[in-house]
Amino acid sequence: MGEVRSRLLGNLLGSLAVLAVAAAVAIGLPALDRALPAARPVTHGQPYGIGAGVTVVPPAGALLDVTKTRPGPRRGTALFLLGSVRYAVVVGPFTGSLPEAAARLRHKITATRGCQVTGTERPVTTGAGVGGRAGGYAAPGRAGRYSVFLVRGLAVEVTVSGTQADLRGALGRVEASTASLAFGRRP
Amino acid sequence: MTGSPGSPPAGRVPRSTRSAPVRPTPPPGPLDGSLLLPAFWLVAALLLVGAVRVATVLHESFSRYPTATVAAVAMFAAYAVPFWAFIDGLDYLEREPPVLLATAFAWGALVATTLAITGGAALHNLIAKAASPRLASAWGSALAGPTIEELVKTLGIVAIVLVARQQVNSVLDGVVYGALVGLGFQVVEDIVYAVNAVALAGGGDRVDPVVTTFLLRGFLAGLWSHTLFGALAGAGIGYLVVRTDRSMRSRLGAAALALAGAWLCHFVWNSPLFADGLGDGGLGVAAALVAKGAPPLLVIMMLVRAARGREAEYYTAQLAALADHRVASPAELRVLASSRLRAEACRYAHGRAGGRAARAVRRLQRAQAGLAVELSRAGAGADLAATPAVRRRHGEVLAQRDRLLALGHPEALAPRERRRTIRRWAGTAGGLTVLLVVWAAIRALGPA
Fold first, then answer.
1. Alpha-carbon dihedral A41, A145, A154, B61, rounded to 10 degrees
2. Residues of B with Cβ-Cβ distance to A63 under 8 angstroms
3. Is the ipTM above a cut-off of 0.85?
4. Going by fewer Cβ within 10 Å, which terminus of chain A is more open, N or C?
């Protein structure tokens, strides 16, 4: 009887150890992650490397979400925060045409639950003269703008979204930032 | 008999006793005993939670990309079948209970993936916060992936030990359970990657990103992936459980070393080193894949081979002790210890006496394996009348022997060493050709 009890006790302790490790991974690490702030200031006026040699000058007063920013040699992502406004720039290889790149971005937007593209698309140009396409979209309680550029086999997708009021206030700074996109030499 | 795995020279202690002992395993019993164990209920609860989570992920994918999701599930489910058969075949002589094999696979597929998705993302973020987004981008997968994934997969092997400790009676058993946990993880992870590739491609509900992911992750990366890492960690847990003659400290050290080895293999594979390949073009990238993946594959295969050899030695020694050629001749003991020779013996029988003889050889080998396991359960010095199970298995062996005698093929031999070598080289060349074809297909499809 004593042997059975000690075996059960050992099994219980082992089970608790397994549960503790699983809880540490599934609950502890995310809690620690949430406890630490993700937003970091970026140097105003200095180009920030998104990835694949593409840079952008962040909007004045923007913070960088380091958990959603992943620069790389062939692709990259950066997420800037301006209050409730989220300004994302995604760079990656693309072999199609500019209309195809725009269609892909529209599809990504509408694949998010509740998001719909609104209005008509229009041409845009960066400060360096690179042409692109831009449009708008809406999500429950939020409005958004998108633009896409294509240069040397690289697609640059820009999305910015926030509440109507915040987006209106930040749009000028974001558009100035998007115009600063520069396409350096790919490594 | 000299050199046969079942019969070490007189006076010499068998390798299985010296380096990796095998303990007799009890017959799989009813579930009732396990119902009393806290570990049983913990595993059941975690499997349930994991199943709900994975089902939710798949349901979301299905609602957006139904064709691609079904294709991904079907492809990777089919992909798992030969891997499962191979892993199960490693432990030919003393097969593990199917319910435990399924539990190991389910842990990897449902629990480990669920834990890894949450924990891995959090650790990735913490690396970005503590260091920089650049470091997280370059090395995040190499650091967070192995750290979380190897840990949660190893938990599954520990859980199997807690639920059915007596079924883990050799290092090889740890390898089998670890590999199946890894296989389950690999299959679900690949399905998620395939559906993500569809979303990333932005072309709607298309199957081509799924096919590319299947070729890339299934073939080029599949040989040296989670199944392999899980097998290594499993070997360590097997050692921890079986080597009760060693101090707990050294057993824990060995288990930690195996886990660290799995972590290192995974780290090297995920690391950005040689990301641009060794040399120009596709072949350079393929060479880099082989350079990063092949060394762990070879090391772990050698470990598995040694563990399998120890187990084969233990079980064939049970038959060798009978010294009864009608049960198993010395040549048959040698054949029984090797999967290649067992298959070769069936082919040889087919060539000499037809398909019925090949089937009889296969059944004889199964009956011999079953008898060896029952003899080990009966205890040292057991004879052929020791227990009802031994007598039943002995009867099965004799029935197949009589069948072979009637077919004019009395002994299950595998004498064609040279043809086997040629077949092995042909198999290697064929495998390399398949990899090159897969590589060309991936290049043609052009992954995003």
1. 100
2. none
3. yes
4. N
